Backbone:
């Protein structure tokens, strides 16, 4: 991934929408549009390979709209500018997280003590169940 090109194209392609926030307010709570929604079409981003583009599309498919637009909102503060910065940072974080490759799992074996402990627990439970039985009628 060419990160500078990716970051630059993200800044150019992002669209901002402002709406009324449901967050904290005061006297002007219903007058200012401080909620920020940023949207971008991930397939138009530059600086990523075709394989990364497919991976991003697969991992973000549940977050994309019908037109293939990814939207992220921020309404944490009363400041529109601060919410704009937060939303842009969240959008970039979502996109970068979709490109991150998970570490391969290392196969491991359970330690021998786990098997011994499991068998000991089975023996204890069996003894407990034996104690619940009525005495045998041999007498």
Residues:
């Amino acid at each position: 991934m060419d990160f500078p090109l990716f970051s630059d194209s993200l800044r150019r392609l992002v669209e901002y929408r402002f709406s009324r926030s449901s967050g904290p307010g005061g006297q002007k709570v219903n007058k200012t549009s401080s909620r920020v929604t940023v949207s971008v079409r991930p397939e138009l981003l530059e600086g990523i390979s075709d394989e990364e583009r497919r991976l991003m599309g697969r991992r973000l498919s549940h977050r994309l709209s019908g037109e293939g637009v990814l939207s992220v909102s921020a309404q944490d503060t009363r400041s529109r500018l601060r919410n704009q910065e937060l939303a842009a940072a969240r959008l970039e974080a979502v996109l970068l997280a979709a490109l991150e490759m998970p570490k391969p799992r290392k196969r491991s074996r359970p330690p021998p003590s786990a098997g011994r402990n499991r068998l000991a627990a089975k023996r204890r439970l069996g003894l407990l169940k034996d104690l619940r039985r009525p005495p045998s009628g041999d007498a």
User: Anything to note?
Assistant: The chain has four helices and three strands. The mean pLDDT is 88.
